[in-house]
């Protein structure tokens, strides 16, 4: 019997903005499964059980007249889930409502029963209403910080932060502006399924800094299906020996084919010339080493089969769109999510 999926309940109220609500739902509901869909690589991760929950029964509209159909009412939900309060549109005359109070009481009770409580942007106001943020550091949208400081002075508001959780206590998490749903999604995926799943999600949905284009997010292309057994055997060999010297010559020798015949059949079977195929394999392995180790670029260059690190740097930038150092920095931000003092600002 498989263990139950971690459950996420996203709270919806009339003050909710639909963009954040549905972005949270889309990314978390498809956590890692979209990687399998688009690349063909099965990650064997079941993902989350995500639902939209509300104290309101039946369809209602949120900010922008966007319809919301709750999948569960608050009283029907068991304890032990991850609860997310998305952003809420708060005016200067912000006053709590009947639904607001009911939601706050429910969140307070769920936290006491072991649930993890999260907020995005001004969703921190609802967490503050519960009293759970008293004497804690918390973040929110910078434009709402003054209002919330006045309404909830017991909270140590830090609007300069994008992500905040207490050291040693990850049961309450707050994130900054509306787009900080990205950091929260990646953090939750990393926390429950590991860094690799979070990195794959960032690559599939292009989450994070996109100023360098799409190349830094690209993963390995799906392997072309073919029935050339000789070439398949060579592909299997290079997957384990990508760092070998003169890999194309060694594959030719292994195949028993004439050089021109091998290159023609390899290109026909894989859609790539042998040299380009080897370079792709090596760069993908280098990406993994940059993401998961502290090896220097020179050490990584040698590890994937390039003695000339200058050539490796040029090849990597041409393929990945950024230098090895910048690539490492981009994905190190995901690895640091939730670590003490590793707030993304």
UniProtKB/TrEMBL annotation:
<keyword id="KW-0804">Transcription</keyword>
<protein>
    <submittedName>
        <fullName>Transcriptional regulator GlxA family, contains an amidase domain and an AraC-type DNA-binding HTH domain</fullName>
    </submittedName>
</protein>
<dbReference type="InterPro" id="IPR002818">
    <property type="entry name" value="DJ-1/PfpI"/>
</dbReference>
<dbReference type="Pfam" id="PF12833">
    <property type="entry name" value="HTH_18"/>
</dbReference>
<dbReference type="InterPro" id="IPR029062">
    <property type="entry name" value="Class_I_gatase-like"/>
</dbReference>
<keyword id="KW-0238">DNA-binding</keyword>
<dbReference type="InterPro" id="IPR018060">
    <property type="entry name" value="HTH_AraC"/>
</dbReference>
<dbReference type="GO" id="GO:0003700">
    <property type="term" value="F:DNA-binding transcription factor activity"/>
</dbReference>
<keyword id="KW-0805">Transcription regulation</keyword>
<dbReference type="InterPro" id="IPR018062">
    <property type="entry name" value="HTH_AraC-typ_CS"/>
</dbReference>
<dbReference type="GO" id="GO:0043565">
    <property type="term" value="F:sequence-specific DNA binding"/>
</dbReference>
<dbReference type="InterPro" id="IPR020449">
    <property type="entry name" value="Tscrpt_reg_AraC-type_HTH"/>
</dbReference>
<feature type="domain" description="HTH araC/xylS-type">
    <location>
        <begin position="232"/>
        <end position="330"/>
    </location>
</feature>
<dbReference type="InterPro" id="IPR052158">
    <property type="entry name" value="INH-QAR"/>
</dbReference>
<dbReference type="InterPro" id="IPR009057">
    <property type="entry name" value="Homeodomain-like_sf"/>
</dbReference>
<dbReference type="Pfam" id="PF01965">
    <property type="entry name" value="DJ-1_PfpI"/>
</dbReference>
